[in-house]
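Worked example 3 (structure in, sequence out).
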């Protein structure tokens, strides 16, 4: 029973001592921090005096001062948290603080000299407790944005103050302390002081930064775990010993030996150490980088425009170096299982190419299999972390880089980036840096893949433009060929007719000009632009087109308009478009059918209507295929660009091309052009 009397206050003293040490090492000089130090001292003094009293080293009257100072410091701490901008002078002038100080000092003083009885100083303690509870309630309501950081402190102090309120209220009524509740306070403070430590970590007003090395925490955690393990084993051994049996001693000896064997096995387990170390670093240490800032900087760097001397490979390498504050690197692209250097920064490896490439040849198979970042310096000291990888140490010493980061695209190795720092202050590639570099690699990889895809798309677009231009040239060649065919078809019959000879030379001259124009287009690899506009008699031009180019197949077209209509157009392009539309109408119509051309002059435009009685087209074909290039109903006989070319010409001229068609009844094209 004697152990229970002093153990609670002893552990509370240790808890307050730890709290005091943490507050003392802080560099903060705020009033709240200074009062928190005083609060920690009062808490330690309170628990230590009660410990000495429970061990009969002090008289119970000595505890009156520490009780009063603990409660008073609690009230002042809450008051400073409510007004964290106050100075010491302002705090001392505040009404609440004056009341707290007066009650704190006069209650034990008057009780010490016998001016007040025990009931009155219990009431004094009760008053301090009530004041602190009121301040705590105000703090809870006014905390707002700081509530998250202050929640553990509010919970801890609230529980302690409510318990004190019950103890002192009961003592004020019956003039006697409840011994069980009095002793329980030490254990209660031991449990709740860690919440104050938690609040120190979370709150801006109480934040205290203490550096403890990761290795120290790791070793301490292992020792702490070993202590818990040995305690449990000791309890189990004690239980075995308590069993009255002649085998007890032997069983206990075997149990102890096996327990130490298991503990030793755990201590030499590298995988266990790694897992514990990663767990501690993930959950008990701040990150090495401010990742939000890093991510914004990396994004801005990738999105910055490229200058004339830069390309996206160099930009990607720059981002890799910036991400870990290195200054040397090489970016390799994997082409047909061979590495090709595409970017380089600072490294002068003219004499080291053979060594570097030898290392990469040994590293690549391992990277393809594991997707793992290879830190050559870590490999030298912990080669067991890279199973299956074998690199001569003397090559690593000569290498111009120390880390190899793989870049994968669709599960295939796109390439690697080799990084180094000329200052030899290299980063330890632990789990955090590896995770960070994996994210950076993914982002930079997308940047590289997008630019390569854009480059490929640009090249394909150039080829597509050339192919499209070639298709139009071929289409025009068919027209020239049709004119030659028409000459040859009529030559036998009209070769002695002087008018036929004149027409033939005129047609050949036109064909020559057209072929020269097509040849120029092919040489320039761009479609023809800036066509020449001229004012013409549209009726005469359409009549001539029918006579010269549309009489070789049936049915012969009929021009229904005789009145002259003036228009300003590119005559060569217009006649080509009309010829395509008329020719298509003739081919879609039986020989005994009809193809009619009508020209209408409207207020601001001119309509050329080409109608036939052919097989017509379906609504689906008109909607989805008619004006789509390289779609045709003629099989190999057509290119599928006649209607597309006509629509494009009409729209470029500021007009339109409409079509009305009914299957088995015929089709009507309406070409509308501005005057």
């Amino acid at each position: 029973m004697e152990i229970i009397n002093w153990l609670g206050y002893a552990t509370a003293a240790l808890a307050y001592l730890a709290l005091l040490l943490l507050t003392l090492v802080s560099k903060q000089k705020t009033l709240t921090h200074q009062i928190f130090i005083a609060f920690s001292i009062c808490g330690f003094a309170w628990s230590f005096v009660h410990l000495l009293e429970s061990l009969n080293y002090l008289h119970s009257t000595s505890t009156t001062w520490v009780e009063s100072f603990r409660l008073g410091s609690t009230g002042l701490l809450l008051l400073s948290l409510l007004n964290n901008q106050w100075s010491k002078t302002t705090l001392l002038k505040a009404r609440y603080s004056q009341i707290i100080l007066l009650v704190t000092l006069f209650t034990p003083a008057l009780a010490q000299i016998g001016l007040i009885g025990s009931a009155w100083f219990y009431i004094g303690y009760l008053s301090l407790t009530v004041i602190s509870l009121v301040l705590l309630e105000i703090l809870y309501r006014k905390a707002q944005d700081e509530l998250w950081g202050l929640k553990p402190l509010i919970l801890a102090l609230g529980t302690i103050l409510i318990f004190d309120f019950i103890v002192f209220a009961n003592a004020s009524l019956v003039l006697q302390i409840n011994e069980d509740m009095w002793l329980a306070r030490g254990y209660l403070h031991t449990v709740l002081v860690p919440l104050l430590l938690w609040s120190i970590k979370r709150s801006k007003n109480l934040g205290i930064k203490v550096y403890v090395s990761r290795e120290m925490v790791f070793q301490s955690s292992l020792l702490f775990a070993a202590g818990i393990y040995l305690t449990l084993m000791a309890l189990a051994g004690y239980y075995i010993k308590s069993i009255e049996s002649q085998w007890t001693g032997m069983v206990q000896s075997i149990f102890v030996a096996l327990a130490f064997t298991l503990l030793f096995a755990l201590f030499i387990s590298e995988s266990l150490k790694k897992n514990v170390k990663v767990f501690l670093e993930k959950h008990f240490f701040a990150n090495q980088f401010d990742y939000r800032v890093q991510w914004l900087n990396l994004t801005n760097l990738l999105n910055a425009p490229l200058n004339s001397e830069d390309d996206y490979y160099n930009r990607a390498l720059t981002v890799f170096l910036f991400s870990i504050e290195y200054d040397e690197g090489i970016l390799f692209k994997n082409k047909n299982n061979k590495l090709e250097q595409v970017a380089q920064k600072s490294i002068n490896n003219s004499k080291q190419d053979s060594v570097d490439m030898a290392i990469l040849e040994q590293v690549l198979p391992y990277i393809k299999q594991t997707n793992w970042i290879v830190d050559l310096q870590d490999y030298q000291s912990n080669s067991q972390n890279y199973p299956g990888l074998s690199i001569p140490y003397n090559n690593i010493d000569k290498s111009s880089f120390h880390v190899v980061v793989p870049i994968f695209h669709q599960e295939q190795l796109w390439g690697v980036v080799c990084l180094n720092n000329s200052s030899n202050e290299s980063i330890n590639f632990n789990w955090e840096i590896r995770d960070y570099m994996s994210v950076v690699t993914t982002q930079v990889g997308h940047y590289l893949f997008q630019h390569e895809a854009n480059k490929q798309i640009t090249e394909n677009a150039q080829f597509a433009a050339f192919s499209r231009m070639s298709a139009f040239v071929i289409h025009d060649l068919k027209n020239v060929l049709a004119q030659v065919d028409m000459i040859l078809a009529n030559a036998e019959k009209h070769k002695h007719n002087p008018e036929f000879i004149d027409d033939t030379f005129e047609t050949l001259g036109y064909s020559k000009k057209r072929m020269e124009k097509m040849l120029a287009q092919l040489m320039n690899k761009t479609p023809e632009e800036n066509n020449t506009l001229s004012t013409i008699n549209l009726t005469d031009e359409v009549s001539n087109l029918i006579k010269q180019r549309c009489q070789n197949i049936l049915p012969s077209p009929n021009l229904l308009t005789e009145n002259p209509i003036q228009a300003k157009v590119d005559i060569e392009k217009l006649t080509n478009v009309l010829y395509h539309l008329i020719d298509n109408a003739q081919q879609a119509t039986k020989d005994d059918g009809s193809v009619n051309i009508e020209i209408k002059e409207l207020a601001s435009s001119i309509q050329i209507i080409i109608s036939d009685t052919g097989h017509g087209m379906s609504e689906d074909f008109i909607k989805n295929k008619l004006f789509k290039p390289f779609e045709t109903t003629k099989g190999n006989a057509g290119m599928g660009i006649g209607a597309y070319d006509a629509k494009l010409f009409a729209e470029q001229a500021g007009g339109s091309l409409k079509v009305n068609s009914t299957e088995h009844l015929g089709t009507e094209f309406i070409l509308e052009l501005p005057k």
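Notes: Residues 208-213, 526-530, 635-639 have pLDDT under 50 and may be disordered. The first helix runs from residue 2 to 24.
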